[in-house]
Design a protein that fits this description.
This protein is mainly alpha-helical. It has one domain. The protein is 65% helix and 2% strand. The protein has 15 helices and two strands. α5 crosses α6 and α12 packs across α14. The protein is globular, with a radius of gyration of 19 Å. It holds the Pfam family MPAB_Lcp_cat. InterPro entries: MPAB/Lcp_cat_dom.
């Protein structure tokens, strides 16, 4: 019975549940990939170990399922997902293209980079798309996400836990970032990937191109400059307006289009937990 009421690592009162209920976060996932590709070792690890070019949409679906499980799954499901990821990472190595050094994919510095760019992308996209969040809620989101960082093997004390700490982390790591050949290949692929179900010559291509352009524009100006493009304020404004328009459009669609089984199960468990709490019999 406990698992049937277990609301997982975060729960209905969390900033995490509020932010991740937004369908516009699909833009954030692509934004984080653009950012992550600027870290030479991180992108080398992906290119040398991942079959993302052969099965990009399968990899995307697995990533979406992982994030959904961590955010909305039971505590046991989230921890099991984390164990699977740690097991996969522990078996992988890559070669630094600049130095020839062999390195592990689960190096803390790489795991931290992926974590920070991911959660910062989720949060920044939500805010710029019009989700109202106070400074306290922003910091609360980062602090909550330490639980997700721990799942992949990071020491929570080593992970930025507030907006100020994330800003400081980016300033610290920026000298290590660069536009490498692997980053250029990844950028080109993310901008024009093969679409599934023979959608390549349909309006779906234009829709994807618009989403990709918005995701790229939502990056920090310094990241766009590393890619060789201007970090102009007008680009920031255009990307923000596009994100707001996309959020408005997505929120006008029926919610059933975005509510997968993991989310629905979480809502059902939260409802049962609330019902038991209100009845005063939740002591078990």
């Amino acid at each position: 019975m406990a698992s049937s009421r277990d609301v997982g690592l975060f729960g209905p009162g969390s900033v995490t549940w509020r932010v991740h209920a937004e369908p516009v976060l699909m833009v954030a996932g692509l934004r984080s990939l653009f950012l992550q590709s600027l870290h030479p070792r991180a992108v080398a690890g992906v290119v040398q170990n991942s079959g993302y070019q052969a099965d990009p949409w399968g990899r995307l679906l697995r990533t979406i399922n992982y994030v959904a499980t961590v955010v909305y799954g039971t505590t046991a499901q989230a921890r099991a997902a984390g164990r699977r990821v740690r097991s996969i990472h522990a078996a992988l190595t890559a070669t630094d293209p600049r130095t020839g050094e062999l390195f592990r994919i689960d190096e803390p510095d790489l795991l931290r980079w992926v974590h920070v760019t991911e959660v910062e992308s989720f949060l920044d996209t939500a805010k710029r798309a019009g989700v109202a969040l106070t400074e306290s809620e922003v910091d609360g989101y980062y602090t909550e996400q330490l639980r997700a960082a721990e799942l992949v093997g990071l020491d929570p004390s080593s992970v930025p836990a507030t907006a100020a700490e994330v800003d400081a982390y980016y300033r610290h790591v920026r000298p290590e970032l660069a536009m490498t050949a692997d980053a250029a290949k990844t950028l080109a692929f993310l901008a024009v990937p093969p679409l599934p179900w023979r959608l390549g010559l349909t309006p779906a291509r234009l829709i994807y191109t618009g989403v990709a352009a918005t995701s790229f524009g939502l990056q920090p100006p310094w990241a766009r400059r590393l890619y060789g493009l201007p970090g102009l304020p007008s680009t920031d404004l255009s990307a923000s307006l596009s994100a707001r328009a996309l959020r408005t459009l997505l929120n006008a669609l029926p919610r059933r289009y975005f509510e997968g089984p993991i989310y629905k199960s979480a809502m059902a468990r939260a409802g049962r937990a609330a019902s038991i709490d209100s009845s005063g019999t939740a002591s078990a």
